[in-house]
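Title: Prediction job returns without error message
Component: structure pipeline
Severity: low
Priority: P3
Assignee: unassigned

Description:
Job completed but the reporter wants confirmation the result is attached to the right record. Sequence as submitted:
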Amino acid sequence: MNKKQIFNKSFLVILGLMFSSVLWAHGGAAGTDTDQCKFELEPDHWIHYTAYQSSNYPGDEFCGSLPDADAMTQLVFDYQDIRYRNMAVEFEVTKEPEGTRVFFQDAKKHKSGTVVLSLPNGVPEAGQYLIHITLHKNDGGRLDAHMSFRAGTGSPTSSTDLLMYLVALLAGLYVLYLSNATVKEKVDAYFKDATSLK
């Protein structure tokens, strides 16, 4: 295989890896073992959490850091275990460290496995908050989980945008390499010199 074929195949492999949804889901980790947007209710039983501020950041998902404090916010919880769908669940959001309640929803069952909590005005001010989830078991027991988040952290830096700029730059350089004989000769000469040093 010549250098051009190796370069072409390497470029395609890198592009494939960059766009692999398995690698980029939840910060590049497969499964939920390193997923930072989750609550552990019992060992190996989770509720996944995602926050949206779609009026200001359409399409963006947040977890531990929300850019705005006083913007419409949706908190979405997905049960990753079907058995929790038969339990009533209670939600509360408090301002920390004061413990002041800013949102509360009474315990009720959510058979779909997804719960969407809407905070029309978001949270009242920038700072640290705590989400409390309490599942009421059928035997009278309770499962409690907590997850903190910070609101009012400012506009998020989008790693997706940076990634797309990088891909566009690499694609542009590759097109330049293929279409310009002078550039192609210089790049080929560089790689020939680099490999001959070994």
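Comment from assignee: result matches the submitted record. The CA atoms of residues 8 and 84 lie 49 Å apart.
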